[in-house]
Design a protein that fits this description.
The chain is α+β, with helices and mostly antiparallel strands and 404 residues long. The chain contains 9 helices and 18 strands. It folds into 2 domains: 42 residues; 356 residues, 4-Layer Sandwich (Penicillin V Acylase, Chain A). It has a 9-stranded mixed beta sheet. A hairpin with a 4-residue loop joins strand 7 and strand 8. The chain starts with a helix and ends with a strand.
Length: 404
């Protein structure tokens, strides 16, 4: 009887060891496949709670480990639609096990470049929309790519605007955030932003080029610029190397700037607004801050640039009423021209953004608030970031850098 008891105990131990071994192998397999994603998920954290009474969504931070398959995305030729991008992200990040989504909507924004009294080059941006959750996304530097800091609206990943990021599935969805930046800076001092341009007359028409070039969608262009551009010229070359396919049946233009003081506005146009209704016929027009006298006298006399939500190409519109955000464009110019584009510091630049914030502005669109305001210092490679027009609330003001 004693011998049988010993034999049974031995069998149970062997079975237990086998089960532990199987579990360990499974864990090692999961870690081997998703170690970067697991590390990224553990970094995801809330840095400011929501305040529904003020239409404030929550603010999160996420430090992305690894290259999030961007090199693979480029190797496959990018994507010519949101559906293709979603499929790539789903297949790469979750290995096809979990469906993920990206979407876009009407957004109204403002940006400008300036120089501080100490000589630092600045890039300011307002993101105007409505209540939403936001994530500040940090990506790593490697031998071929820059470290970056960017801002992502989490509703474009399918996160409910009226609740926090809850549970593992929501966090897994946020792994797609590097592919949906709205603005950002890299460690070379290059900054870029994306803005609605409402092209095509009565009904907005998306840019949809179809040549033999590889393809990108709206936010993936911004991602490529942040990861690969050392300066404005390289950013422009990246844009020229791809066919543009705007997301969500709408249209966008961009502004990019670097630490040298050079900036450019990137627009895809064909003809005038009333005739620009064939997205495949559009061509990239690049307007540099030091070569823009053809845009207008005030632009030609200024070393700085500014942008809102209308195409700046001369003769594009028949009437001013069709120029979305013209009032904000003129207000930004009024503020900057008073000091010839020189501001005291980042806080002074933030005050200009506050002057065209949606709560204090006579809205010309349906956007109810400025979701975030940010000033990127392209010289020091630092970030001053404020959520939802809470400019005087210290708990809503954040400073970031690549060292901290």
């Amino acid at each position: 009887m004693k011998q049988k008891s010993i034999s049974l105990k031995r069998v149970l131990i062997i079975v237990l060891i086998a089960l532990v071994g199987v579990a360990l192998i499974a864990l090692l397999t999961v870690y081997g496949i998703w170690h970067n994603e697991i590390s990224t998920l553990t970094s995801f954290r809330q840095i400011r709670e929501r305040n529904d009474a003020h239409n404030d969504g929550s603010v999160y931070m996420m430090e992305v480990s690894g290259g999030f398959y961007l090199d693979k995305f480029i190797e496959q030729g990018g994507a010519k639609s949101d559906a293709e991008l979603i499929q790539f992200i789903t297949d790469s990040i979750t290995k096809g096990l979990i469906d993920m989504g990206l979407s876009e909507s009407d957004i109204g924004c403002s940006s400008f470049t300036a120089v501080s009294e100490s000589g630092d080059r600045l890039f300011g941006r307002n993101y105007d929309f409505d209540k939403t959750n936001t994530c500040i996304v940090f990506t790593e530097k490697n031998k071929d790519r820059h470290a970056t800091i960017s801002t992502v609206d989490l509703q474009f990943l399918g996160i409910d605007v009226n609740s926090d990021v809850n549970g593992l599935m929501d966090k897994i969805t946020c792994l797609a955030a590097p592919y949906a930046p709205l603005d950002g800076i890299n460690d070379a001092g290059v900054s870029c932003g994306i803005y609605m341009s409402y092209q095509g007359g009565a009904e907005t028409v998306a840019t949809n080029q179809n040549t033999d070039k590889p393809d990108f969608t709206s936010t993936t262009l911004l991602r490529l610029i942040l990861d690969y551009a050392d300066n404005v010229e390289e950013a422009v070359e990246i844009a020229k190397s791809y066919d543009m396919h705007d997301s969500a049946n709408t249209s966008y233009h961009y502004m990019v700037a670097d630490a040298s003081g050079k900036s450019a506005i990137l627009e895809w146009v064909c003809g005038t607004d009333s005739t620009d209704n064939d997205g495949s016929a559009r061509e990239l027009k690049v307007t540099y801050n030091d070569n823009d006298s053809h845009i207008g006298e005030k632009e030609g006399n200024a070393d700085y640039q500014w942008i809102t939500n209308f195409i700046i190409q001369p003769g594009y519109y028949e009437k001013q009423e069709d120029m979305k955000g013209l009032d904000r464009y003129e207000k930004i110019y009024e503020e900057l021209s008073a000091t010839n584009g020189v501001v005291k510091d980042e806080k002074a630049a933030m005050e200009i953004l506050a002057a065209v914030g949606r709560r204090t502005w006579d809205n010309d669109d349906g956007n109810g608030c400025t979701v975030h305001s940010v000033v990127y210092n392209l010289t020091d490679k630092t970030v001053l970031w404020v959520t939802n027009e809470n400019y005087d609330d210290e708990t809503a003001v954040f400073e970031f850098s690549f060292e901290k």
